Every structure is written in structure tokens, then in C-alpha cells.
Amino acid sequence: MNNFHFGPDLTSSGVQFRLWAPAAKQVELVLERPRRMEVHDDGWHTLMVPEARAGTRYKFRIDGELDVPDPASAFQPEDVSGPSEIIDHAAYPWRETDWRGRPWESAAILELHVGTFTPDGTFRAAIDKLDHVVDAGFTAIELMPVADFSGRRNWGYDGVLLFAPDSAYGRPEDLKALIDAAHRRGLMVFLDVVYNHFGPEGNYLGRYAPQFFAEARTPWGSAIDYRVAQVRAFAIDNALHWISNYSFDGLRLDAVHAITQPGEPHMLADLSRAVGARAEELGRQVHLVLENDDNRASLLDPRSNPPHGKYRAQWNDDYHHAWHVKLTGEIHGYYTDYREQPVQQIARALGSGFIYQGEASAHRSGERRGEPSGHLSPEAFINFLQNHDQIGNRPFGDRLTKRADPHALEAAVAIMLLAPMPPLMFMGEEWGATTPFPFFCDFTGDLAEAVRKGRREEFKAAYAAHADEVPDPLTEETFRSAVLNWGACREPDGRRRLDLVRELLTVRRQEIVPRIAKSSFASASADGDLLEASWSLGRGETLSLQANLGGTSIGNPRLAPGARPIWGGSAPARLRPWSVFWAIGAP
User: Fold this and answer.
1) Closest among 388, 469, 392, 484 to 438, alpha carbons compared
2) Are residues 384 and 486 in the same domain?
3) Residue ranges of the chain with pLDDT lower than 50?
4) Alpha carbon of residue 436 to chain centroid
5) How far is CA 395 from CA 297, 342, 351, 474, 500, in A?
């Protein structure tokens, strides 16, 4: 057959079903009755069914003994082990038909989990909060993974049917309605996708297509083998599916350092080229972002348009880790690498992107980490103070509002939101939410007990005194505790923080965004708690930062002649504790 396209095709003659099952001797399509599929030499099984249509539900029967869903199912109305439903993506009546995306330099991102963003936890309910997102000054939302997972609740990183939005959040048309509504408000929508592993419950690929998996392991299960052409095509098909059928403006690829068998050429390069070509076909701007613990600057090029072979940006964990140590004093785990001089490390991140650019990491037993990054544009580094990982991978899912001095946290926000790197905040952070975001899932049986035990074991070393108090990730109560309390944004502290974020993002939109496209790193330094940084903006202009990141007033170097303050007023002779000043130098 030599056709690596996954999932059913709706045609004028009916529906063409296909399944790549090289380990199966026989595959039957199960509709109202089983129908034997034609087998091809390359492991594909196919069948044309004239009477099938959108809404038809089906399964595949492997060797007469196991009924499985389509691995490229478009929707699973009865969870991961139920029948798959055919969706006619072309039938959705998009209202915003002129949307072409936004340039990357305008990105200010709010990350959210659909199930806990609102009390109802659905795609439709999220629409009601989009006006708040726009009013706060964000230009994009990023959805944590929505691919179908086992059970009623999950962070999303245990997805097993990667083409199907989980039914707990609504139907495919509900997700499209959310994206359509966001575009009508000028918001980009990004999706977090997972190509390094499949979830542990509801994944049947190993039975009929074991070639999907390599012998190597990831922290979350068997590694996916992208040396196999069909497996590589599956991931690329999936990326194109979200971009084409749902009009997402970009994807964030989770933990690509855990893709242990990327093949040659690297699957990340092939995926980026395919998405870039599709973006050109669609006439839209599409942005691809990485999470990569390896700090590989060579994968990044924020100004290539479309992104042929490269990626716009990477989540900059280094930036977060240095700030977290400074704001909280915590130095366990990976924070060990940032314990000595966090202000100097913040300066390094502001001055050249990554902190680890080939240096040895104590946390990684002396292993060298990263590549030089100062030659890249600042747009290549997404900076954040909190995200789902850095809150939820704590034993109690507590936020910085529970750990950091509020004045110190406001100074950190003022630096992050006006630096020329794209900023990201986690839902509720814009008003200083205290709602926790603990890890939660909905597994059953032995797997549930293993997750419960593993969660407590994970925190024994750093939180020995409280290990037995870690919330049970399997309970409804733990999940409900993570649902945002929107009433807090109307309380005095919430209004004050939201006003601050709104003002900062307004300054960003007016003063920084028009100049980012020509920005480059210039210099950054730290002297005790005095932090200084500058960036070239082209046309002879310079963006400069001066901040006191401590509790004692310190002397303030004079601003360069011609500098025009844009935040924090005019810098006085001495900088008050946790004060921040931004200025732009005239040409």
C-alpha cells in the first residue's frame, strides 16, 4: 500500500478505513457486524464502506480476539477503550474565516488546563473567560494536552489517542468553537502535544504494531521509535491534524529531550518542515515551541517564517529555576544548580538566553548541559515564573503566592513582562491566585495504586516530614482543589495584581512589541542584588533594565544619556528594595 496516512477518509463513495497493524494476522472492522479488512504487504489493513458517514462509530478487531479503537480516532465518546467516531472536520462552520495568525513577537501567553480553568471544565465554558484574557493583555492561550486519556480527569500527559480531544471537555466542534471565539478576539491558541511516550492505560499499539516502540525507556514508559517511517508519519500527521482541522496557531512539544530514538533526519526537523509547508499552504502564521531539558540552541530560529526545520522558541526552565531560588530559597533537586548566585544567573538568562550553555550540571552528576545561545534573538526564549510543571510537580501544588514575598514577586513580574522575551503565565497567576494545582489523574486498579505510591515516594527525600500528607492524585477532591477560584480576582489583592499585569502588558504592547523584531542581546550583569541588563532594538535604540532584587536600598548607576523611562518612574539616586526601572534609549 505504501501509504502512511492514518485515520479514516470520508469520500463521496463512503469511508475508507485503514489501520497499520503489522503484527496482526487478521483485522476486522467492527460496525454493526465484523467485516474483514484487506491486508497489504507493508502491514496496512484497509476497507471501503459505502454506507459509513460522519457519526459512524467503529472499532478494529485484532486476530478475532481483541477489539481496539482507531489509534488515529478523531473522537472517543465512550473513553479510550470505547468505539471511535468518524468526524467530518470540513463540516464545521467557522465564523472567523479571515484569521491569519499573529507575529511571534506579539506573544504574551496564558497557559491553562481546560478541566480546571472553569468550574464546568469544558471547552465551551472556557469561551466565557476569553474576554478576561484579552482585558488582562494576553495575546495567546496555550492549552495543556487535550488528547484522549483514560478516565474523567488528567493533566493530559497520559494521552493515548492523540488525534481525539478528550470527551470530558466536550466534542471536537466544542474545541473548534473555543478556538474560533479566541480568534475573533485576536487571541492565538497553542496546544501542548506529547510525542515522547503514550499513556499507560488504553494504549493497544503494542499488541498489533509493536514497531511503534523502541527498547529504550522514558521516565513515563516505553520510548517511541521514530526510526520507523510509519511511526514518524503518525506524529507528523498528528501535528498537521491540529493545525489544519482545528486551526491551532502553534504547538508546544513536550519534553523532546525524552525522544530517545529520533531517527535520521531527526523527526523534529521533519515535523517542523511539514508544519511549515502546511502553514504556507494555509496562508497562516504557525509557531512551534519546544520543551527541551538539553538546551539545544541549534534547534531554534525564531525568525524563520515558516519554521522549516527549526522552532520558534523554547520554554526557558533556566530562567524559572534561578528566579525560584531567589524568591523562595529552595535549593533541593534541580534547584541545586542555581543555589550559589541566582541573581547573576538571572542576569545570564537575560543577557544570552540559557544559563547552562555547555557548563557542567551538579544536579546531573557533572554532565555538561546546553549549547551557546547568545547569538539567537531574545524571541527564542519563553520566560516564566510559574507553569503547570513548576506548580504541579510540587507535593502540594502550591504557587509562588504561598512562598514568595509579594513585593519581590511583583518585581519579578515587572522584569519578566517587559523583557523582550515572550512571557508566559499560568492560569490565575495574573491575579496572584492561591489555588493549588496538584497532580491528578483517574486511573484504576494496580496502576492507580502504583501512581499513588510513586507520588509519595518521589517527595520523601525533600519533604520527609510531610510525605504522608501529599494529596492523593486519584481522588475527586484533589482534582476539585485545582479548579480556579475566579472570585479571588475581584478581591482587593487580586484586583491590585491584575491591574499591575494589565499595566505592564499595555507597556509591553506599546513600547516593546513594535521593537522586538530587531532586538538582540547586548549585556547583563549583577553586583550583589543590583541587576542591570540591556538589549539592542535596532535603529540605535537600546532597552535597559535596572533593578534592586534585595531588601536593602542600594546605589543606582545613572541611566544612559537620552534614556526615556517607560516603567518605574525616573530612577532615583538610590534604588528602593525590589524596585524595577525600564527605559529606552533614544536613537
Assistant:
1) 392
2) yes
3) none
4) 19
5) 32, 23, 33, 14, 29
291 is catalytic: yes
**Residue 60 near residue 28, CB atoms below 8 Å:** yes
- DSSP strand pairing (109-112 vs 423-426): parallel
Query: How many degrees, rounded to 5, is the angle at CA 247 between CA 486 and CA 241?
Result: 115
CA distance 95 to 173: 13
pLDDT at 64: 96
Whether 166 and 118 have beta carbons less than 8 Å apart is answered as: no
Domain that holds residue 38: 9-90
Q: What is the pLDDT of residue 586?
A: 74
**What pLDDT, on the 0 to 100 scale, is given for residue 455?**
82
Give the active site residue among 166, 173, 225, 291: 291
The region that residue 452 occupies, defined by phi over 0 for left and psi between -120 and 50 for alpha, beta otherwise, is alpha
How does strand 38-39 pair with strand 44-49?
Answer: antiparallel
Is residue 268 domain-shared with residue 413, that is, in the same domain? yes
207 by DSSP, 3-state: which? helix
pLDDT given for residue 185 in this prediction: 98
Catalytic residue status for 38: no
Same-domain status, 293 and 417: yes
3-state helix, strand, coil in the chain (%, to 5): 35, 25, 45
What integer pLDDT is reported at residue 25 of this predicted model?
Answer: 96
Q: Which of 376, 396, 416 is the last residue before a domain boundary? A: 376
The answer to the question of residue 431 being in a domain is yes
Q: Is residue 501 in a domain?
A: yes
User: Among residues 254, 293, 410, 532, which one is catalytic?
Assistant: 254
> CB of 571 within 8 A of CB of 581?
yes
Measured CA to CA, the distance from residue 437 to residue 434 in angstroms comes to 9
398 residue type, one letter: D
Q: Are residues 266 and 355 in the same domain?
A: no
What's 84's domain CATH number? 2.60.40.10
Q: Which of 382, 384, 380 is nearest to 371 (CA)?
A: 380
Based on the domain organization, do 565 and 473 belong to the same domain?
A: no
For position 526, what pLDDT does the model report?
97
| Number of domains observed in the structure of the chain | 4
pLDDT value, residue 2: 56
151 and 56 share one domain? no
Whole-angstrom distance, CA of residue 379 vs CA of residue 346: 17
DSSP state, residue 471: -
Mapped onto helix, strand or coil, the DSSP state of residue 72 is: coil
Q: Of 511, 527, 549, which residue constitutes the final position of a domain?
A: 511
DSSP structure string for 40-63: -TTSEEEEEETT--TT-EEEEEET
| Domain CATH code at residue 152 | 3.20.20.80
* Residue 152 counted as domain residue: yes
- Shared-domain flag, residues 263 and 146: yes
Question: Is there a contact between 398 and 470 (Cβ–Cβ < 8 Å)?
Answer: no
Q: Are 341 and 448 part of one and the same domain?
A: no
Query: For the residues of 488-532, what is the DSSP string, one character each?
Result: GGGSHHHHHHHHHHHHHHHHIIIIIHHHHTT-EEEEEEEETTEEE
Judge whether 97 lies within some domain: no
Q: What pLDDT is attached to residue 557?
A: 72
| pTM of this structure | 0.97
